[in-house]
Amino acid sequence: MKPKSSLIKKRGRYGYFFIFPFLVGLLFYFIIPLIGAFRFSLSELKVNSTGYELSFVGAENFRHAFLVDTQFRKLLVSSVGNMCVNVPITVIFSFFLASLVSMEFKGRGAVRTILFLPIIISSGAVAMLTADDYMSIMINNSDKYTAANGGLASVFVSTVSQMELSSGVVDFLVRSVERVYDITVMSAVPIVIFLAALQSVPDALYEAAFIEGATRWEVFWKIKFPMVSPHILVCLIYSIVDSFNSASNVVIADIKNVTYMKFNYGMGAAMSFSYMAIVLVILAIVYWAVSRKVFYNN
Amino acid sequence: MKKAVSREINAETRRYRRKQRIIGITISFLRTLFLIGICFTIIYPMLSHVFASFMPARDFYNSNIKYLPSSFVLDNYKKAVQLLDYGSTLLNSLILCLLTSVSQVIVCTMVGYGFARFEFKGKRIFFMLLILGLVVPPDLLLIQRMFQFKFFDLFGVFKLIKGAPLDLLNTVWPFVMLGLTCSGLKNGLYVFIMRQYFMGLPKEIEEAAYVDGAGPIKTYIKVILPGAVTNIVTIFLFSVVWQWNDTVYTPVFYTEKNVITTMIKMLPTGTISMSSVNSLTTNAGIVLIVLPMLILYVFLQNYFVKGVERSGLVG
């Protein structure tokens, strides 16, 4: 062990200064509420006229979620499976698109604006307004606006179903096209992150490489890729979290349903905690596996 | 002899150039084709909302009309503006968004720098807790946090002065405070983005500043921040859009004033429910909600253009 110089020690203290706001928030707005929520998960909560009262039930809520509730386990599995398919595609696709859009060409601004659109459309308020659309598409399948709101997929569906193909083929085609839209929407945030990352790569590096006679292919793998790799980690983590925590996720919908519709706060909290634990394990594995390969320029 | 050689070289160069040009044209052709496809996929649902928003009511009952309205009318917009109380809603939402986002961006950038560049005890654990914060479903903490702000007190100070804890709901304070303590919506992501950016910077930049006698704080403000503009704009953009669209905290913390997320209840739900012609109004409402964010993006996009602010940042 080399004794650390006093300069590094002194600088280390500044580290606490820089992350001080985070530490305050961590204590007051994360750990304390989390403990509160954990107490909920171990109790049964009864709302009465004066407020609410908690009665301790131990691990009963957790037991119920996993052993009694048949739905929850199924949803968990399908949610993890979905993530495993979508996330790698999303990250590769968005990296590819971001490097396309970072090139010089006419109408670049317009394309970037359009690629940004899903962030606004698919989050929160607007998503809530359009959520009914998909319901009614499924229910009454009316042809007038179905196509308009289901997007490309439904146009495709009507075309494909007119062709005489076996239902298995149709099903596969429809599913993969539907996925195109999902992936494009999920890619919106990673694209912006990658775009910023690509723009932060100094031009001089490319110039030097081209002068040395490197081909585009080599420049991509030897310069672009390693320089952007810290942000590949960000996008991976983000996409995983997004896929698990978005409002359209089946498990989140189930938790919301249990919490707000059935007013079973304890059960909802227990489900959230077990869900979180699973997501964390997956994240830990991905982070550990990827962060070793990430290149930091110093 | 010499001439023949040079002619041969010329021919070779020409061939090489032609090959390069063909490759260039092919790439740009494929790129255009691909991007048009992707853009169409994204824009298609939005475009249908835009068209529907201009539709007169009679078009709704006409089964021959699918996308393009027979005439463009502003009736739906008039109704939507009235229902949303658009003027004051827009102003309130913008104020709330800007306050929240500015506080979030300042703090997240700072924390990101702290995580990227300093060595201190517990750094790994704190960073893991930061990521954990991203993973926690926001609804889990929502109820607890609501009670914290409903009965807000700083170590009993307010109880001492006013006799009761403060009720901070329906003020902007919960949002600013969550922002300033780095615990707002998706703040972990912003810190992570900034941290990754700062970690990729060459250390020489700061070393040069230290040699010149600047302390870490001065170095951060004078040297590091100006170079990070692209990334700061990125997280600012995310933060504004997500606050604008936030359906987690805003409907709980900020119910009395008109902001977008509390006013959308006024719109008839379901843009395509065949039952009612009101859905046209909702389409107009969607356009009105999306538009400010789109304008903001178009303005901020200039910061994504390379090489303006980054002088002196070449590693």
Poorly predicted runs of 5 or more residues of chain B: 306-315
What distance lies between the first and last C-alpha atoms of chain B, to the nearest angstrom? Answer: 48 Å
Average pLDDT taken over every residue of chain B:
82
Domain unit count of chain A: 1
Strand line-up across the major sheet of chain A? 1-2
Largest sheet of chain A: 2 strands, antiparallel
Low-pLDDT runs of chain A: 134-150
The helix-strand sequence of chain A is HEEHHHHHHHHHHH
Shape of chain B: flat
The CATH superfamily of chain A turns out to be MetI-like
Strand content of chain A: under 5%
Provide the number of structural domains of chain B.
2
Q: State the CATH topology of chain A.
A: MetI-like fold
Please identify the structural class of chain A as seen in this structure.
mainly alpha
- The CATH superfamily of the largest domain in chain B is known as MetI-like
Q: What is the oligomeric state here?
A: heterodimer
CATH class value of chain A: Mainly Alpha
| CATH third-level topology of the largest domain in chain B | MetI-like fold
What is the helix/strand order of chain B? HHHHHHHHHHHHHHH
Cα end-to-end separation of chain A: 22 Å
